[in-house]
Amino acid sequence: MRSGALLLSLILSGTSFLFLVAPRSVTGAESGAPAAAARPILVTVDDLPVASPKLHTDAPDRERVTRRLLEILARHRIPAVGFTIWGQVKGPADAALLDRWRAAGLELGNHSFGHLDLPRTPVQAYVEDVEQGRAGLAAYLEPHGGKVRYFRFPYLREGETAEQWEAVRQALAASSQRVMPVTIDTQDWSFEEPYVTAVRHGDDRTARDVAATCLEAIKAEVRHHEERGDDLFGRPTPQILLLHANAVGTAVWDDLFTWLERVGHRFAGPDEVLKDPVFAEEPRFFARYGCSLWDRIAHEREAAQTRDDIARLIATQVEAWNRGDLAAFTSAYADDASFLSPTGMVHGRQAVLDRYTIRYPDKAAMGTLRLDLDEIRPVWGMEITAGGDAVPGRIHGASVAGRWTLSYPDKEQAAGRTLLVLSRAGNRWTIVQDASM
Ligand SMILES: [Zn+2]
Q: pLDDT tens digits for 68-119?
C-alpha cells in the first residue's frame, strides 16, 4: 500500500515533496556542526544481492550495480549492514556478489528466504521461511567466521495480531537474531523501475530527473523522521536509514551521503547505534502495514495516554456518583449519546440524566459505585501519507469493558456489566454509547 508512483507523479507534476512534510527547524547541525556532535546514522541496505530482481536478470548488470554501490559506501567509509533474501541467492554468481559485500568488511543480516508478507502468511510457514533464510546465510558466513546477528522484517511488517508478533519474536530470540528496526523509512525502491526503464531507453534526462526526485524524497524522509524521533525523546536521536540494493541507488547514494555528512551526520555501525537506549524497547505494534520505529513508539505512547485519559474520566464519574451528583456523572456523555439497558434504549445526554434521576432519586438509592475496568481498546487504523508511507492514524475512539457494583449499608449489593464506546473531539473524550446491564 506504499505508493511510490503517487509520490513520483506528485513531484514530476511540480508539487515539491518538501512541502508535504512539516519543515524541520534548522539546527546547528544544518549549518555544519563539529564532528563530535554529529548524529550517528546506520545505513541498512535491503534485498541483497540485488533488489527488484525482475529488472536485473543478467549477471553483468547485477555485478555492475553491486560494484558501484560498494564503491560509494567505501568512499564515505560507511559501515553499512546488508540484508539478504536468501531465495534470491540463486547460484555462484550471486554468492560472488555477497563475497564483494563481505570483502568490503560489511555485515550481512537475514531478510528471510522468500520475502513473505507476515499478515497474509500462516505464522508457522513464515517462521520456517525466516529460518530458511537464516540457515542459508549462516552456512555461507560461518566458513568465513561470520554469523547472522540481525533480522529485518520484509516490508517492515512485524505482525497484525499478538499471535503473529509473538511467534516470530520467539523464533528470532531462539536463534539469537535481533530485529533491526528502521527509523527513516524511505520509498527508494519505488523509483527503481522508472529509473531502469529510462536508462535502458537511453533517456538520460529522465533517468537524471528520476534520480534527483528520489534523492529529494529521501532527504525529506530523513528530515521528517529525525524530527519525529527527536520530539519523542527530547534529544538528537541516532537513526537507522532504509535503502535498497538497486540501480537508482548508484545514481543517488553519493549525493545522499555527501548531504548527510554536510548536515551533521556521522556514519556508525550497528553495535554503536543499537546500544542507544531508544532501541531498548520493542513496541508491541500490531498492524497490516510496516512503518518507522518512531511511528510505532509514538502510537504506543498515544495508546497509553488514551487508556490513562479514559481511566481518569471514568474515575471522575465514579467520584461524582458517590457524592450524589448525577449531573456531573452524566457530563461525560456526548450530547447525542445512546444508553442501552435491558429495559430499552434512550438517546441524548439529557435523557440519560432523566433516566438515572428516576431510577436513583437520592443518595441512599445511589449507594456507592465501584467500576472495575477489564479493558480499554483504542480504535485507530493505518493511513497513507501523501508521500506513500503507511503510518498509524490518530486514535479517535475507544471501547471500554467493565463491571459495576453498587453497595448499600442496608441492603444487598447490585452488580452488572458495562460496555462503553467513547469518541475523541480534540483532546476531550465523551461517551457516545453505553450498554449497561
Ligand atoms: Zn525487503
A: 999 999 999 999 999 999 999 999 999 999 999 999 999 999 999 999 999 9
**154 Cα to the center of ligand 1, angstroms:** 5
Distance 114 CA to ligand 1 centre (A): 10
Cβ proximity of 367 and 406 under 8 Å:
yes
Q: What is the pLDDT of residues 132-172, one digit of tens each?
A: 999 999 999 999 999 999 999 999 999 999 999 999 999 99
Strand partners, 434: 339, 420
pLDDT beneath 70: ranges in the chain = 1-36
Here the cell at position 432 is 457516545
The pTM for the full model equals 0.86
Closest CA to 268 of 252, 279, 281, 282: 279
**Contacts within 8 Å (CB) and 24+ apart, 258-263:** 258/76, 259/215, 259/219, 260/41, 260/222, 261/76, 262/32, 263/29, 263/30, 263/32
Question: Which strand (E) or helix (H) includes residue 175?
Answer: none
Ligand 1 centroid to residue 113 C-alpha, Å: 11
Strands (E) across 29-102 are located at 39-48, 81-84
Contact 63, 245 (CB under 8 A): no
Give the Cα separation of 55 and 204 in Å (integer).
Answer: 18
Q: How far apart are CA 130 and CA 110, in angstroms?
A: 8
Q: What is the DSSP letter of 31?
A: G
Contacts of residues 417-421 at CB distance under 8 Å and 24 or more positions apart, as own/partner, are 418/371, 421/397
Which three three-digit cell numbers place residue 139?
Answer: 552456512
Determine the distance separating the centroid of ligand 1 and the alpha carbon of 356, expressed in angstroms.
57
**What pLDDT is attached to residue 434?**
97
Distance CA 132, CA 151 (A): 12
The Cα–Cα gap between 395 and 375 comes to 16
Q: What is the DSSP string of 83-120?
A: EE-GGG--SHHHHHHHHHHHHTT-EEEE--SS---GGG
Instruction: Tell me phi and psi for residue 88, to 5 degrees.
Output: -95, -5
| Cell numbers that stand for 42 in this block | 546506520
- Give 49 Cα–ligand 1 centroid separation in angstroms: 11
What DSSP string runs through 391-418? EEPPP-EEEEEEEEEEE-SSS--EEEEE
